[in-house]
Design goal:
One of its GO terms (molecular function) is UFM1 conjugating enzyme activity. E2-like enzyme which forms an intermediate with UFM1 via a thioester linkage. This is Ubiquitin-fold modifier-conjugating enzyme 1. With 167 residues, the chain is of the alpha+beta class. It is built from four helices and five strands; from the N terminus they run ααβββββαα. It is globular and about 45 Å long.
C-alpha cells in the first residue's frame, strides 16, 4: 500500500512518544518538543535529498500552525499559504490542513481550503495515532495531495504561475 520512497521518508521521521494534546498542559509541552524535533528532522532530510517543499511555524501555544508550501512544476515554483489548527482531540485526530487561496478550486477540498485527506490519510493516521505527528501529516497528507492536485489545477488553468516579488 505504501511505496518504497514513502517508507524511506517515513522511517526518517521520528515517531512521537507522548500522547498529549493542547488540553494536557505539561504533557503538551513535551509533545510539542517531539513535534518540533520530528519536523526539523523531516525538513533536514528533505533539504539533503533536494526535496525541500514547506516551512512551518506555530503560535506560542503550538495550537495554530502556519507557513508556506510550494510545488515545482516544469521548473516553476508555485507557492501557497498553509495553515491548520491542532484539534482538541489531538493526537487521536489528525489536523485539517488548509490552503486558503485554493478554496473552491478543486473538488478534493472542503470549505475554507481544507484539503481532502479522508480516503487515504485519515485511516493511516487512525492506525498510527498517537505516534504520528505534524511531520507525518505533512509527508503523508499535504505532500501527496500537492503532487496530485497542483499539476491538474495548472493543466486546467485554475492555478497560474505568479512571479514572486523581491522582498
Amino acid at each position: 500500500m505504501v511505496d518504497a520512497a514513502t517508507k524511506k521518508t517515513l522511517s526518517s521521521i521520528p515517531l512521537m512518544k507522548t500522547k498529549a494534546g493542547p488540553r494536557d498542559r505539561d504533557q503538551w509541552v513535551e509533545r510539542l518538543k517531539e513535534e518540533y524535533r520530528a519536523l526539523i528532522a523531516y525538513v533536514e532530510n528533505n533539504k539533503q535529498s533536494d526535496s525541500d517543499w514547506f516551512r512551518l511555524e506555530s503560535n506560542k501555544e503550538g495550537t495554530r500552525w502556519f507557513g508556506k508550501c510550494w510545488y515545482i512544476h516544469e521548473l516553476l515554483k508555485y507557492e501557497f499559504d498553509v495553515e491548520f489548527d491542532i484539534p482538541v482531540t489531538y493526537p487521536m485526530t489528525a489536523p485539517e490542513i488548509s490552503l486558503p487561496e485554493l478554496d473552491g478550486k478543486t473538488a478534493k477540498m472542503y470549505r475554507g481550503g481544507k484539503i481532502c485527506m479522508t480516503d487515504h490519510f485519515k485511516p493511516l493516521w487512525s492506525r498510527n495515532a498517537p505516534k504520528f505527528g505534524i511531520a507525518q501529516a505533512m509527508a503523508l497528507g499535504l505532500g501527496p495531495w500537492l503532487a496530485v492536485e497542483i499539476p491538474d489545477l495548472i493543466q486546467k488553468g485554475v492555478v497560474k504561475y505568479q512571479e514572486k516579488k523581491a522582498e
